[in-house]
Amino acid sequence: MKSFKNPVKIWRRQAKIRSYLGKVGKVLSFTVIRSAGLGFSKFSPYVVVLVEFDDKTKLIGQYQGIAEVKIGMKVKAVVRLAIQEDDDSPLVYSIKFVQL
Amino acid sequence: MKIYIKDYYQTKFGELWDKSLTDLIFETVSVLLKNNNLSACDLSAVFVGNMLSGVLDDNLLLSAKINEILSNAGLPVIRSEAACASGAVAFFNAVNFLKSGQGKTVLVLGVEKMTDFSSEEVTTALASALSGPEQLAGLTFPGAYALMAKVYLEKYGYTQEHLANVAVANHFWGSLNPKAQFRQKISVSDVLNSAYVADPLKIYDCSPISDGCAGLLLTTEKTAVEVSACSVATDTLSLSERKDLLVLDSVARSAELALTSAGVSIQEIDLLEVHDCFTIAQLLVLESLGVCGKGEAGDWFADFDQNKPFALRPVVNTSGGLKSCGHPVGATGVKQIGELFLQLSNKAGARQVSGAKVGLAQNTAGSGGLSVVSILTR
Q1: Where are the alpha helices (DSSP H) in chain B?
Q2: CA of B101: how far to CAs of B28, B78, B128, B232, B250, in Å?
């Protein structure tokens, strides 16, 4: 989990996510992660979706909507907290999805 | 130049709490050298596949450690890392080393020590073979294959029972393999009643966390089993970059290369050892290899009958597959080729397929980012 502790690496990774904000797409597939890795276990179970945007590019991210997720469902890309290793670690943000 | 397999040895796969990574390598090397009246000086090189010793255990430069086991013979010892296909990539390197005329006999090892760590730690370590965005989404390997399984079931109208059939068959074969991690037979309802890991995949759809080592002696001197081909191909690391979630391009490409190189068609293959890290993986590999058409593997495999286990041809995963034999990730690719060697030299005991002449082993890395296909002929 070294990758989620280094602020420079986090900045480099997050610098690109702005372009996804507000993009709309549909769910191609999804799963519910019930056995997660370090740092993610405290959030499990959580839903991960594969989304195809209207411009045909695709992205994998967590689904944070309230409605039950279904294949073909319309979703929108938002920025949400992804993980914080511990109280001294930086906050890591990522693109997640909510129902449109 | 023709390459042959001289011998094979596999440690027991499983939770081997009394054995370290080095112990597993030592056992494999010692048995192979002793049984063949060889000393380290008779080898030209050693090729070893291992994924996680650096990530999990601060344990790198296996080359020099293996040299210590080989009484400091000073041989070239080359490590390969390609996630769960590390073992078959080591085999690929060994075959090409011999083909280039640099030696006469080499040792190929695949080894992994996983059970000293919690399932969370292993899940995270394995996920280092997912893309950055996938890791940041909290995706796991069961999760990546679950994304494929969800689409497969929905698109072709299959149910979780079609996935469960794969686990039941592989446990049947594992019950006949004394080196397998799990030797109990299971039923479809055992699979369906187990807990979800990543929907729609349940615990019994998933290969286990395992320790183990497998080793092959390769030689340029004629033996009963020839290595007819070994090919590697790659695909994108990220699932989101794939054109079709249900086609494993690396598998199709590596199979096409190997079949062409060996001069055989997929219909001529008697035995398959394929990468069933998850039940869905085995079905997608069978389709990507061309054993079944697209969307047909679920129906094809439903015909497997434990009372007539040799009836469905080609016979698949007589080792028990990753599911039942265990999946020490760096060892798996070597074990698959070793199982074909045992079969083709009539040493497979209760699971012996009579009359088999051509076998194909397929080893996948990650969610399909790399595949190795090897073909052995008797």
Answers
A1: 21-35, 53-57, 62-69, 86-99, 119-126, 132-136, 141-156, 160-174, 188-192, 249-262, 279-289, 297-302, 321-325, 329-344
A2: 26, 17, 36, 20, 28
Cβ atoms within 10 Å of B79's Cβ, excluding its own: 21
Q: How far apart are CA A70 and CA A57, in angstroms?
A: 19
Q: Which of B139, B197, B238 is opposite residue A35, by nearest beta carbon? A: B197
CA distance to partner chain B, nearest, from residue A3 (Å): 9
Alpha-carbon gap: A83 to the closest alpha carbon of chain B (Å): 8
Domain A2-99, architecture per CATH: Beta Barrel (2.40)
Closest CB from B138, B143, B240 relative to A59? B240
Best residue in B136, B151, B205 for a mutation probing chain A (most A CBs within 10 Å): B136
How does residue A15 score in pLDDT terms, banded at 50, 70 and 90?
confident
Break chain A into its structural domains and give their ranges: 2-99
Q: Write out residues 77-136 of B within 8 Å (CB-CB) of A.
A: 119-121, 123-124, 127, 132-136
Query: Rounded to two decimals, what is the model's pTM?
Result: 0.97
Identify the pLDDT of residue A2. 59
Cα angle: B334, vertex B176, B255; to 5 degrees: 35
At residue A66, the pLDDT reads 74
The answer to which of A7-21, B69-83, B121-135, B277-291 has the lowest mean pLDDT is A7-21
pLDDT at residue A87 above 90?
Answer: no
Buried b (16+ CB within 10 A) or exposed e, B318-329: bbbbbbbbbbbb
Residue A51 token pair:
């989304």
Task: State yes or no: is B162 an active-site residue.
Answer: no
Phi, psi for B323 (deg, rounded to 5): -60, -45
Quick one: pLDDT at residue B116? Answer: 97
Cβ distance of A34 and B120 shorter than 8 Å: no
The pair of structure tokens assigned to B219 is: 């030689």
- As a whole number of angstroms, the distance between CA B322 and CA B208 comes to 8
Distance CA B189, CA B217 (A): 41
Structural domains in chain B?
A: 3-117+210-218 (3.40.47.10)
Q: How many CB atoms lie within 10 A of CB B48?
A: 27
- C-alpha to C-alpha distance for B338 and B341, rounded to whole angstroms: 5
Q: Do residue A48 and residue B120 have CB atoms under 8 angstroms apart?
A: no
Q: Name the residue among A63, A50, A54 with its Cα closest to residue B244.
A: A50
CA distance B28 to B107: 10
Residue B327 a catalytic site member = yes
